[in-house]
Amino acid sequence: MPDAPRSAEPFRTGDATLMDGYVPVVDLGLDAPPDPLRRASVARAVGKACESSGFLVVVGHSVSAGTVSALYRSSRTFFGQERERKARVERDPTDPLQRGYGGYSRLEMYSATRFGERALDRDGAPPDPALLFPNRWPAIPGFRESYLAYHTEVERLALDIMRLFALALALPEDWFDDKFARHMTPLMVNYYPAQTATPPGTFRNEPHTDFGAVTVLYQDEAPGGLQVRDPSGGWLDVPPIEGSFVVNLGELMTRWTNDRWASTVHRVVNPPRDQSHRDRISIAFFYQPDPQAVITAIPSCVGPDDPPRHPEITSGEYFLAKSRRAYVERVMGRRHT
């Protein structure tokens, strides 16, 4: 199986796509005046990526660089503490949203969740109690504020991405809006410590797929980064373009589109040995629908010769089943996440 990473070649293909390839770079144009024709071009570019790799890099997103920097500073302060202090906000291992601190041999994580508007009061029916663990905030001045500010800005970006998805799927632009009005979205900061010794294996984070709807990831420029598996079995680097976000589909979106769109295996590799003294931070926003949203094949993704391939399930039921399976795998040591 080929294993050498390759990168896409840059060239202009129109107003939206700045770099074509298996993982294209797309300018969303959200930092410019509205232009319906250009937005249609962006939706086509996004849809093309979703049908092939389920991965794209986006710029022109309007998320403030200051908001990103503030969360980076807070996160470095948190992860730079002694293990004993970080453990004061250690997650409950049975929490499916993994709120709090978790540390493994090659990766440390901190996660908190901010529910969408009225998430806990929909017609008097709250989501499954298993989703209602409290956030565990560290006692670091400004940490909670930087976390929630970032969550708010990327939440707006994620909703706009879903609206582009709707256009790409020949749906009304607001088709997904009500499914995410009361979303349950964990925001996870991943910290990859400097490697003081030659690590066992190849990976900082082993090959996997995400299981939500869509992940919006900010990664820094440190070597030893994200790679996505291509159809030949090889691996492509996902370039850390300054100011960009990586967008990738989770398994829920594949199910929602009746397997029309891809959720692709990806991994994080170790840095070259001469760069192993550098640590790395990435920030993952796992956009997940309202727990009570019914996930069934999107109307434009079915037809007489292509009936629904998956049974109906609520977003909450799906998420809990996937997270419990992931928990069992971690406990049994089959995955290092």
From TrEMBL:
Keyword GTP-binding included in the entry's annotation: no
Pfam families (UniProt xref): 2OG-FeII_Oxy, DIOX_N
Keyword entries, A-Z: Antibiotic biosynthesis, Dioxygenase, Iron, Metal-binding, Oxidoreductase
Domain Fe2OG dioxygenase residues, every copy: 182-289
Lineage top rank: taxon: Bacteria
Oxidoreductase is among the record's keywords: yes
Pathway: Antibiotic biosynthesis
GO molecular function, one term: dioxygenase activity
The family this protein is said to belong to: Belongs to the iron/ascorbate-dependent oxidoreductase family.
Protein name: Isopenicillin N synthase family dioxygenase
